[in-house]
Amino acid sequence: MNALNESLPPPADEPFCEGARQLPVRGLRQGQVFEAPDWVAEEVPVALEFNGISHAVMLATPLDLEDFALGFSLSEGILDAAHELYGVEEVVSPEGITLQLEVASSAFMKLKERRRSMTGRTGCGLCGTENLAQVRQDLAPLDSRSVWSAAAVSRAMAQFREHQSLQQFTGAVHAAAWCTADGDVRWLREDVGRHNALDKLIGALAHNDVDASQGFIAVTSRASFEMVQKAAKAGVSLLAAVSAPTALAIETARCAGVTLCGFARQQDLVVYSHADRISLGN
C-alpha cells in the first residue's frame, strides 16, 4: 500500500487532530528542501439514507456527522423540525460513511414526492439537481426587527481563528459560526465544504435548542445563494461572509429578508441587502 494512504502516529509532544491525518511530505521552504510530516484534512464520501432510501452522497470531513445529518435535513426542507428525526446510525465501510436516518413518516412521504439525486462534490450545493424548479426553495421573508452593529461582526470575525482547531492544523477547511448579537462566537463547525460546515452548524443549533434568530451566522467563505437559503431556513436574519457574495445570493437575501454582508475583514464590511439593519457607526 502507498505510504501516503497510511496515517502516521502523532509525535508524543504533538496533540492529535481529529478530522485530519499526518502524512509525509517533501518540498521547498525559503529555497531549502525539507521533508516532514504534515497534517492534512480528511475528506470522505458521506451517504445520507432516509428510512432505508439513499438520497444524497456528499464529500465531507468526518466530524460532527449527526449535526450534519440534522442540519442538512432541515436546510434542504426534508424535515420541518428537529423532532422529526428519530435517530442517526453511522455505518463505516471501506467506501466511506453511511448515515442512516430514521425520520417521521410524514417527512419521508414528502421526501419521496420530490426525490432527487444529489451526488455532490466538495463545495457543490446543486450537483445532481434534476430541474430548475428544485433550485430555489419557497421561503417566507423573515420579519426581523433586529439591528446589528458592524462592530459585532468585526468582533466575531476576529475570534474565528482561535475556534478553528482543524483549520490551524491543516489550512484546508471552512468554518461557519453562530454568534451572539454582540459578536461572541458560541457555536462553530468546520468542514472541507462550506455548505457542509453551515449544515453542521445548523444541526448543532437545532440539537441544542438554540434560538438561532437571536444571533447571526458568520462564514469563512464566499456567500452563495444556497448559503443564504440555509441561513433563512434556520431563522437567521444576518449572514456575514469573509469573501464576496454572488448576485443571486444578494437577490435571494433581499427576497428572504436576510441582511447579507461580504468582505467582513477586520473593521471592514460591505452590506448588500437590508442595509438599514446594520449600524455602521463607531
Automatic annotation (TrEMBL):
Q: Which SUPFAM superfamilies match?
A: Cytidine deaminase-like (SSF53927)
Q: Which InterPro entries match?
A: Cytidine_deaminase-like (IPR016193), FdhD (IPR003786)
Bilayer-crossing regions: none
Superkingdom classification of source? Bacteria
State the Pfam families in the record.
FdhD-NarQ (PF02634)
Active-site residue numbers: C124 (cysteine persulfide intermediate)
- Main location per UniProt? cytoplasm
What subcellular locations does the record give?
Cytoplasm
* UniProt keyword list: Cytoplasm, Molybdenum cofactor biosynthesis
The record's listing under PANTHER family reads: FORMATE DEHYDROGENASE (PTHR30592), SULFUR CARRIER PROTEIN FDHD (PTHR30592:SF1)
Q: NCBIfam families from the xrefs?
A: fdhD_narQ
So what family is this one in? Belongs to the FdhD family.
Role, per record: Required for formate dehydrogenase (FDH) activity. Acts as a sulfur carrier protein that transfers sulfur from IscS to the molybdenum cofactor prior to its insertion into FDH.
Question: What name goes with this protein?
Answer: Sulfur carrier protein FdhD
Q: Which organism is it from?
A: Roseateles agri
Q: Organism classification, top ranks?
A: Bacteria, Pseudomonadati, Pseudomonadota, Betaproteobacteria, Burkholderiales
